[in-house]
Amino acid sequence: MANALYLTLLVGPVMAVPAPKALVDALVSAEVTESATGKSGFQLTFTLADQSVLQTFFLLMGSSPIPILRVILMANFGGLPQIIVDGIVLHHEVQPDAMEGSASKLVVTGQDLSALMDLIDLSGLPYPGMSPDLRVLLMLTKYMPFGIIPEVIPVLIPDIEIPIVQYATQKKTDLGYIQELAKDVGYVFYVTPGPTPGTSQAYWGPQVRFGTPQQCLNVNMDAWTNVESINFRYEPQSSVIPLVFYQEPITKLVFPIPIPPVTPFNPPLGSLVPVPLKVEQMNETAKLPIAQAIMQGMARSVQTADVITAEGSLDVLRYGDILRARSLVGMRGAGLTFDGVYYVDSATHRLKPGEYKQSFVLKRNALVTNVPAVPAAAY
User: Fold this and answer.
1) DSSP states along 287-347
2) CATH classification of 5-113 is 2.60.460, yes or no?
3) 8 pLDDT exceeds 80?
4) CA distance 252 to 238
5) Is the pLDDT of residue 64 over 60?
6) What is the CA radius of gyration of the chain?
7) On the CB side of 212, how many CA atoms lie within 13 Å of its CA?
8) Is 61's pLDDT higher than 70?
9) Of 179, 184, 243, 305, whose CB has the highest number of CB atoms within 10 Å?
10) What phi, psi does 230 have (nearest 5°)?
């Protein structure tokens, strides 16, 4: 028997508090999209009657000294609260209903808390004698009052400039500069909500694909089936071998370095890793330090190594848990070729009264499972 599901909505400037009952009752649907490397977005739909409290609520929030409306949506499932989204509202849209006697709708759209970092252009801000990871850490500390906890992984060989010769200066907004620094060293940046209400984790580091798998997805297993639909695509032609270059500083000779599809950050998720048929030359890496060039090549390898893509949907109440992006999940019942462990590349949550469904995209860099058995529950 599936566990009961309870939703909690919190709103407010800077620190979100439980929403008024009238606001919660007006919530018709919610949709949240999580992506492995990009921003997470959300869309909330409310009924908007002529005398609705929403009319006054959003007017008051708009005139607040801090014009930021924070939204936290939590799902209490099996007694354990999970933060589905923690973000800020960026756009409001009113959809009047042409039918007489029907209520209009208010559609609220927003993004995760990384949107806060894209509000002010701080171009020209100096960072003398600081490595890229220290610059990112310093930028993220400004957002700790919002409960954002930095999780910054140091680069292997930092490129630190001598301040009396030259020093780094910020370009664009904090978010733009953080993403630029991540691209330079082959890292990714994203913000995940939780683990407790009002807190989020800001991760800047390599995209890793290992850890504890989530509850298993079951296909064609009669009463144990917890997936509504799923399809698999095998595309070996999408995999490439990134070729980075290193220029020896004395002789000026250039040496090519091929990056395999399997790296320490991207271990094989199956037994049979197809050999890439294409080579992609990354000529711009010849100007970089060798460690930075290799990291960029490894990042490109992770992006192109996936040869299997699975797209499907599930009912959360039947699945018994909430499937999250940026982590692993097991698959059973799909046959020898497609059973095993996958990386959740994206997950979309769709909530309505009495209904919670998800669509998802899974990816893997190999065929045939490499684990003796896929456990039913997370371990």
Assistant:
1) GS-HHHHHHHHHHHHHHH---EEEEEEEEHHHHTS---SSSEEEEESS-TTT-EEEEEEEE
2) no
3) yes
4) 33
5) no
6) 23
7) 6
8) no
9) 305
10) -160, 145
Euclidean distance between CA atoms 309 and 330, whole angstroms: 14
**34/343 Cα distance (integer angstroms):** 13
Q: For 170-277, where are the E strands, in sequence order?
A: 188-193, 200-205, 214-218, 229-234, 240-247, 254-258
Q: What is the mean pLDDT of residues 43-66?
A: 69
Convert the pLDDT of each residue in 164-214 to its tens digit: 667 888 989 999 999 999 988 889 999 999 899 999 999 999 988 888 899
Give the residue-averaged pLDDT of 264-291: 89
Q: Where are the alpha helices (DSSP H) in the chain?
A: 21-26, 53-62, 132-141, 174-185, 290-304, 316-319
Q: How far apart are CA 304 and CA 276, in angstroms?
A: 10
Ordered by start, the domain boundaries in the chain are 5-113, 120-205, 214-233+313-364, 236-304
**Separation CA 311–CA 166 (nearest Å):** 49
Task: Give the separation between CA 263 and CA 167, rounded to whole angstroms.
Answer: 33
Would you say 358 and 348 are in contact if contact means Cβ atoms under 8 Å apart? yes
- Length of the chain in terms of residues written: 379
Share above pLDDT 90 across residues of the chain, in percent, rounded to a whole number: 56
Residue at token pair 């990009």: 38
Is residue 307's pLDDT more than 60?
Answer: yes
Do the beta carbons of residue 285 and residue 255 sit within 8 Å? no
Residues in contact with 149: Cβ distance below 8 Å, sequence separation at least 6, in sequence order: 199, 200, 201, 202
Comparing C-alpha atoms, which of 64, 73, 18 is closest to residue 45?
Answer: 73
> 120-205 is classed in which CATH architecture?
3-Layer(bab) Sandwich (3.55)
Residue 305 corresponds to which amino acid? Answer: A
